Amino acid sequence: MDDLNAMLTPGMHVRHPDKPDWGVGQVQSNISGRVTVNFRDEGKVVIDSFHIGLVPVFDD
């Protein structure tokens, strides 16, 4: 399987494709296919990059 979020780096803003109510999140870390994101309306969440592809946000 591919790491769907390999290009994400700390500080980037993202959205979860299945959880729009979480709002925009900021990547905290991206280590070995586990991306930690601090979402505005959900808090800190660890995402499995082999199952969920986060959507980068460039204009928020």
3D structure, described in words:
There is one protein chain. By secondary structure, this protein is mainly β. The chain has a domain at about 25-55. Helices cover about 0% and strands about 40% of the residues. The chain is built from no helices and 5 strands. The protein has a 5-stranded antiparallel β-sheet, with no helix packed on it. β3 and β4 (about 45-50) form a beta hairpin. The radius of gyration is 10 Å and the shape is globular. The mean pLDDT is about 95.
Structure keywords:
60 residues; mainly beta; 5 strands; globular
A few lines on this structure:
The protein is mainly β and 60 residues long.
Helix-strand makeup class: mainly beta
Rg over alpha carbons = 10 Å
Order of helix and strand elements from N to C terminus: EEEEE
Low-confidence stretches: none
With strands numbered from the N-terminus, the spatial order across the biggest sheet is 4-3-2-1-5
State the end-to-end distance.
30 Å
Beta content: 35-45%
Shape: globular
Number of strands: 5
- Count of separate DSSP helical elements: 0
Helix content estimate: under 10%
Chain-averaged pLDDT: 95
Largest sheet: 5 strands, antiparallel
Secondary structure topology:
Layout: E1 13-15, E2 25-31, E3 34-39, E4 43-48, E5 55-57
